[in-house]
Each structure stands twice: as C-alpha cells, then as structure tokens.
Amino acid sequence: QVQVVESGGGLVPPGGSLRLSCVASGFTFSLYFMRWYRRAPGKEVEFVASISGPGISTTYADSVKGRFTISRDNAKNMVYLQMNSLKPEDTAMYYCGGGPGDSWGQGTQVTVSS
Fold first, then answer.
1. What is the pLDDT of residue 82?
2. How far from chain centre, in Å, is Cα 40?
3. What residues of the chain score a pLDDT lower than 70?
4. Residue 30 three-state SS
5. How far apart (Å, rounded) are the C-alpha atoms in residues 34 and 26?
C-alpha cells in the first residue's frame, strides 16, 4: 500500500525559512521521481519542484527558483523541500507526490505572514 506523509509546515514571517519533509512507503522509492505541489486558497494546484529517483535531476517552478531546494534521502525514503526567502504568496497547502499513480499525502500547511 502506497503511503505518503508530509510534515514541517507552519507559520513563518516574510523572509523566513521552513523545511518540509515527506516520508514514503509501499513502493521502491529510489526508482521514482518525487514532486512537491501546492494549492493556495482559491487557486489551482501548482507544481513546485521535482527530483529524479537518484536525486541527480531537479526541476523548479519559476515562482520558487532560487529560493526553494528539493532533495531526497533514498536510504530513509524521504524527500525534502527547503524553502528560503518566503513570501506571503507562498502561503498554501503543500503536497508531496510520487510512486505508482503519483500518490499524494494529506498535505502540510505553510502560512507566510507577519
């Protein structure tokens, strides 16, 4: 059974940092791309970042490029999203996705506000 669980969200002031974590199980983690998505209130789901199975290739949305970094630890079945220089427009529910069928977790809320 594929399972993906995100954590690490919270309230942070503009300019602050957060690191999101995601643990996956139920599939051979190192073989799959993993991705972060987000959904802001009243908006469509937005792709944020992806990382290849070996962790060599990464891709970012233009809106986060240079501020966010995706990484993974295949020994722990974990993927991370380091978010720096956060802006109010980064406020959203963040989801981790991957594995067969691109399964998502329940999400973790990130709120950027003073």
1. 98
2. 14
3. none
4. helix
5. 14
